[in-house]
Target: TetR/AcrR family transcriptional regulator
Amino acid sequence: MTRSTHGDDGDERLLATVVDILESDGYDAVQLRAVARRARTSLATIYKRYPTRDELIFAALEAWMVENRYAGVVPHARAPGESLYAALMQLFRRIFEPWERHPRMLTAFYRVRSSPGGKRLLDRGLGIVGPAGLELLSGVDDEFIRDFDAIVSSVVYGLLGRFATGEIAITDILPTLDRTVYWLTRGYEADEKATAVAVAPSVKRRGGR
Model:
């Protein structure tokens, strides 16, 4: 899938129309004739910019996510004294709360993410969120970062799948993620504190010689 490089008003109106349909009627309601009629354009114009329906939905969803889900995601260091848990959850809330307000966009994301070309949509998000997360994790043990990423990624994808199939409500996602991040970071920080306490006496003994 490729996103159109057109930046004109007609293209913006076309993508906005697709977003409106996704939010009001759902993924399956995005049909090219309906989109053309509501966007006041022709099917020929749509096909010239987006050869397939999937590419059109991909482009509209990507544009919405950049404007809403990733808005304000800027790499920055943790504040002095700020815990890993607090810093990371501030980031996660920023990127998940737009989905709470627009649950059908999450359904659309999951459909596109599960499609053959959906990895590109995920990579786009990782390119924005990844640097912000790594900045918050600056100074943290590399092994913990790898484990944290693997566990949280699995939890998030599982939660999105359960929401998409109707097993859980959209408002169940953040609380579950919150508990996951809390226990992972609490365990890491407790281990770091215990290590520091264990090392301190030996440092003191060497310094007293």
About this structure: Residues 173-208 form the longest helix (36 residues). Residues 1-6 have pLDDT under 50 and may be disordered.
